[in-house]
């Protein structure tokens, strides 16, 4: 038995969106379909997302040696779930493209998919440079190294081309005594630096800025165990010790600075939970530690911590609410799907994300010592001119930063590049002429005559939801699509149209495939394949089920076609057109003499919209083994190493009476496949019988009461076709 590998592979298998069809055999012997178990909305959503990923729906298309591995699941309003995936190639993580997010709901429908573009991958995965040599090269970029992560072999997409590389994060200081946190890829063949991106994002008790406030700490140290061990201390990384009340209220007392830091960070974490239902800064209830006392005019986040210095005149520490929340806004950007990119536009949107969360936290805290506004660092006198460092309602008022998307260039400095998205957020939250003493905001050329705001809390929730659709190719057009999708699915037409108007007002144009904000549901459907891959010998055939789901409006007719099949393979559908919500059988007939190999076949569904999925056909190289002839019901499939599949047919079955469940698994010689019988316990699937020997064949027998059951086949090592036989009471 292999519990470690099982956890990773089988976690991706959720309750399917519909019951398995009645199994082959007599009605008396076959497990009969029953109503689905209660409390399974999340499982339905994840099953829909996983099926979309496995099927290569639309932007999720991937090659034969590639997989989309689920990395995070975030619950949202209205029964929605954001599920993020990382692309892998022959088991290695792919960075720089190919990552994806699926938005699905608790009824098992896919609402939206987004994926970062990536080329088809083909490269050797053998490294010529050792991990140790790569780490030494990476460490050599900094004059002093504080920490370095263990190198991981990856595939880096650089300039649209794959590079086998060792990936590590090196944190320390440069020769110029500046902080550095270099996200580094060392070419695994040449040993040279392939790419290095600095993750440092600067902000150019008795608190000083916030007055006497309440913070959460341990009795004897500035450690917050309720938020993942969050702590604040000096430059050595240790939390300050002492007792309440913390600090003396002095402008340059560092314990006082930590009071301000902890107050702002904790309010930001609370805001995320109370306003958006999001679990804290890192999505898991915690956040990186903080350090006060940097002897520079700077504050920054480097992926491992936040650090705060002093202002230009040395009159106070840079620990105001908006600055602290800005730095932890970088962690939010970094920890949501797609992480942080390397382009100036992506960097500008990262800076803007920090500014937006600074404004949100000020409004949530509503502290009379730092009244809510839409400027950044206005209390801190950062540079000695008594001016804020950025303005969200009119970015051009500070250093003539760009107000409009059309003003951005590839060379726009990242802090200035925050302007367009900051401007958009203010317009969405407050509008162009909000009144009530709030400043008016200009509209860019070609925009609407005015914009009406929807309030900062709604605007913030829409923005947070959009970050959960972020991929590594994040830019302003992608943000427009994501915020429209989130607004429509979280609130409705009014808020969706407000999002659209605000983007129009800053010059980000409409995008192909963006959400229709109409008050009624736009007709749409989704496609999936079961299974999404299969094999056949020449002069034979293989089948798969093409499932359709109505995701918007009324059911519609969907025409099915296929493309990309090699010479000698004929693909047909029965029926060739279906009503969304029903299925068709796809048959791939392989003629004698068809060359062996693996071929991606694109299945296209055409209705009010067009969607595609990808079937991976292997010709001649894999034959399902035999040996389960006495089973009542037989299922076959193909798995790559590390993958898992639920049976029957990706779903489960119901046994109405107690009795013995017998499973028989036969896999290719030389592989190690495992078999798990699971029973639904009202909240999740629990193992009740396991065949986990270090071999290709497994047999299980379990006497159980009436209930819902399924088998999970796990390819622990090795790949190929398998046969599963099962008998049930």
From TrEMBL:
Signal peptide annotation: 1-29
InterPro entries per UniProt: FTP_domain, Peptidase_M4, Peptidase_M4/M1_CTD_sf, Peptidase_M4_C_domain, Peptidase_M4_domain, Zinc_Metalloprotease_M4
Organism domain of life: Bacteria
Pfam family, one: FTP
CDD domains: M4_TLP (cd09597)
Residue ranges constituting the FTP domain according to the UniProt record: 67-116
Domain Peptidase M4 C-terminal: 343-508
Domain Peptidase M4 residue range list: 206-333
Keywords on record: Hydrolase, Metal-binding, Metalloprotease, Protease, Signal, Zinc
SUPFAM superfamilies: Metalloproteases ('zincins'), catalytic domain (SSF55486)
Family: Belongs to the peptidase M4 family.
Full protein name: M4 family metallopeptidase
Organism from which the protein derives: Streptomyces omiyaensis
Taxon lineage: Bacteria, Bacillati, Actinomycetota, Actinomycetes, Kitasatosporales
């Amino acid at each position: 038995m292999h519990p470690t590998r099982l956890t990773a592979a089988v976690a991706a298998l959720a309750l399917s969106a519909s019951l398995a069809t009645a199994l082959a055999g007599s009605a008396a012997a076959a497990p009969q379909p029953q109503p689905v178990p209660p409390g399974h909305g999340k499982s339905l959503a994840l099953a829909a997302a996983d099926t979309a990923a496995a099927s290569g729906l639309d932007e999720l298309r991937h090659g034969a040696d590639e997989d989309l591995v689920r990395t995070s699941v975030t619950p949202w309003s209205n029964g929605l779930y954001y599920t993020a995936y990382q692309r892998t190639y022959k088991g290695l993580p792919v960075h720089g493209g190919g990552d994806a997010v699926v938005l699905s709901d608790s009824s098992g429908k896919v609402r939206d998919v987004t994926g970062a573009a990536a080329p088809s991958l083909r490269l050797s995965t053998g490294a010529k440079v050792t991990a140790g040599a790569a780490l030494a090269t990476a460490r050599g970029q900094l004059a002093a190294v504080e920490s370095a992560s263990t190198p991981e072999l990856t595939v880096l997409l650089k300039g649209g081309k794959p590079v086998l590389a060792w990936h590590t994060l090196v944190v320390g200081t440069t020769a110029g005594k500046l902080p550095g946190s270099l996200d580094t890829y060392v070419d695994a063949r040449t040993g040279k630096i392939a790419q290095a991106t600095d993750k440092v994002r600067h902000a150019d008790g008795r608190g000083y800025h916030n007055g006497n406030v309440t913070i959460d700490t341990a009795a004897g140290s500035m450690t917050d165990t309720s938020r993942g061990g969050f702590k604040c201390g000096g430059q050595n990384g240790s939390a300050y010790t002492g007792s309440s009340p913390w600090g003396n209220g002095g402008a340059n007392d560092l314990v006082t600075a930590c009071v301000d830091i902890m107050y702002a960070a904790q309010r930001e974490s609370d805001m995320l939970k109370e306003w958006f239902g999001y679990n804290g800064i890192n999505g898991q209830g915690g956040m990186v530690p903080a350090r006060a006392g940097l002897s520079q005019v700077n504050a920054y986040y480097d992926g491992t911590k936040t650090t705060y210095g002093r202002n230009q005149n040395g009159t106070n520490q840079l620990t105001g609410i908006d600055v602290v929340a800005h730095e932890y806004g970088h962690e939010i950007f970094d920890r949501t799907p797609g992480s942080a990119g390397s382009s100036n536009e992506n960097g500008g949107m990262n800076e803007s994300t920090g500014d937006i969360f600074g404004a949100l936290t000020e409004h949530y805290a509503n502290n009379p010592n730092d009244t809510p506004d839409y400027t950044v660092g206005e209390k801190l006198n950062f540079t000695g001119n008594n001016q804020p460092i950025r303005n969200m309602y009119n970015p051009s008022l500070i250093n003539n930063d760009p107000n409009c998307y059309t003003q951005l260039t590839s060379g726009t400095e990242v802090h200035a590049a925050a302007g367009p998205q900051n401007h958009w957020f203010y317009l969405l939250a407050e509008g162009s002429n909000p009144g009530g003493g709030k400043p008016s905001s200009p509209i860019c050329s070609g925009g609407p005559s005015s914009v009406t705001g929807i309030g900062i809390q709604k605007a913030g929730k829409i923005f947070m939801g959009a970050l959960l659709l972020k991929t590594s190719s994040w830019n302003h057009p992608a943000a427009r699509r994501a915020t429209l999708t989130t607004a429509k699915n979280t609130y409705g037409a009014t808020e969706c149209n407000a999002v659209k108007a605000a983007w129009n007002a800053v010059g980000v144009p409409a995008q192909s495939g963006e959400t229709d904000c109409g008050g009624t549901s736009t007709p749409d459907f989704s496609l999936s394949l079961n299974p999404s891959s299969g094999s056949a010998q020449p002069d034979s055939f293989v089948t798969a089920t093409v499932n359709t789901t109505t995701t918007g409006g009324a059911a519609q007719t969907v025409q099915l076609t296929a493309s990309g099949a090699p010479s000698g393979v004929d693909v047909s559908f029965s029926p060739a057109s279906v009503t969304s919500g029903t299925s068709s059988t796809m048959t791939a007939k392989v003629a004698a003499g068809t060359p062996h190999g693996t071929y991606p076949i694109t299945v296209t569904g055409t209705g009010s919209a067009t969607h595609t999925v990808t079937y991976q056909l292997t010709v001649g190289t894999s034959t399902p083994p035999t040996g389960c002839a006495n089973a009542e019901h037989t299922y076959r499939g193909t798995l790559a190493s590390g993958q898992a599949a639920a049976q029957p047919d990706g779903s489960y079955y119901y046994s109405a009476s107690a009795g013995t469940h017998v499973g028989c698994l036969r896999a290719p010689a030389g592989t190690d496949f495992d078999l798990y019988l699971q029973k639904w316990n009202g909240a999740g699937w629990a193992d009740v019988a396991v065949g986990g020997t270090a071999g290709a064949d497994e047999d299980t027998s379990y006497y159980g009461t009436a209930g819902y059951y399924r088998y999970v086949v796990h390819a622990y090592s090795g790949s190929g076709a398998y046969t599963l036989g099962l008998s049930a009471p």
